[in-house]
Design a protein that fits this description.
Number of helices: 4
Structural class: alpha+beta
Order of helices and strands: EEEEHHEEEEEEEHH
Strand content: 15-25%
Largest sheet: 7 strands, mixed
Distance between the termini: 38 Å
Shape: elongated
Length: about 190
């Protein structure tokens, strides 16, 4: 099942009443009376996935990076734009809104404004909405002492593959050894 969401940004004053581009070909004309730019995301749109993607995977923590991301247009998932899947940007371009008042169309709505991410959830039972909440990344940050040593893991996997190639392991034996590496923190 897909968890659909909308992702938006409140534009800075300096980005209103001008053309914004993301690839030197496609542009979007902004207007002062429509300071909110929004895109649609088809799946994986939960706050947990948003935190992981915005803060950790994509580093969308400043105005310029979020603006560029939203200018790419509607998305299949947080990490894949519809244009990556062969669709036309003109069919997936961001929408402009005057305000964020009213109902949210999808299960979640994320917005970047004033240097922070916020979200709102639509409650399915009776389509009630909760208030805006800050999307805080504290609980998803990997501390350096907790992060696995990826160079070590790559080295171990290379050695295991060499053993398989030399006939010292069967594919089943290799699989068992690789599973032992899961969660390694050497």
């Amino acid at each position: 099942m897909s968890t659909r969401c909308n992702i938006a940004i409140k534009l800075k004053e300096s980005d209103l009443d001008r053309e914004l581009t993301f690839d030197d070909i496609h542009f979007l004309k902004t207007k002062r009376e429509y300071p909110f730019m929004e895109i649609y995301c088809h799946r994986d749109g939960t706050p947990e996935n948003a935190k992981r993607f915005f803060y950790q995977e994509a580093g969308l923590t400043d105005y310029e990076s979020v603006l560029k991301y939203i200018l790419e247009g509607d998305r299949t998932s947080f990490s894949t734009s519809n244009t990556d899947c062969g669709e036309q940007w003109s069919d997936n371009r961001p929408y402009m809104y005057a305000s964020l008042d009213g109902d949210i169309p999808e299960m979640y709505y994320f917005i970047f404004m004033d240097g922070k991410w916020f979200y709102k959830e639509r409650i399915s039972a009776n389509d009630q909405q909760v208030e805006w909440q800050e999307l805080v990344a504290d609980d998803i940050v990997i501390q350096p002492e907790e992060a696995p040593d990826f160079a070590y893991i790559v080295q171990e996997v290379q050695q295991l593959v060499e053993k398989l190639t030399d006939g010292k392991y069967t594919l089943e034996g290799l699989t068992k050894e690789m599973l032992k590496l899961k969660g390694v923190k050497k």
